[in-house]
Amino acid sequence: MDARLDLFASPVTGKAFKHLMAAGKAVKESSLPAATQELVSLRVSQINACAVCIDMHTKEATAAGETAVRLNLVTAWREATVFTEAERAALELAEQGTRTADAAGGVDDEVWARAALHYDEEQLNALVLLIGFMNLANRLNVITRQPAGDYVPGSFH
């Protein structure tokens, strides 16, 4: 499969990506646990069927020491026993924040309250930014049909 556009060749997207990458770096450097960041990035990408981001975040998480069992169970996190309560709260927030059209009213108060039990205000800010950022990245990649499979961990650091 060939991409519809080379997003990295355009001056417009190049300029925008520079700012987006800076925003992504700020989230990555936040106190939100790295494992949580990768799990949330993976789950949002699964919901949006973004193959290139699924490829990227699976490989980044693996390179950071994440287990295959946990990565394979992200799609079924509710039934899986391998996630902490904090990770479960983040995954639930990610799902409702991604499926805004399906979750009438967006993120409900109970989901927000569960996340707030486990994450401080800085971490919640990072989590919200990450969910929004991943939805944007997923949509750019899906719309332009970016191919997946050849991502090398560390390519965007």
Automatic annotation (TrEMBL):
Residues 17-95 form the Carboxymuconolactone decarboxylase-like domain. InterPro entries: AhpD-like, AhpD_core, CMD-like. It holds the Pfam family CMD. It comes from the Bacteria. One of its GO terms (molecular function) is peroxiredoxin activity. This is Alkyl hydroperoxide reductase AhpD.
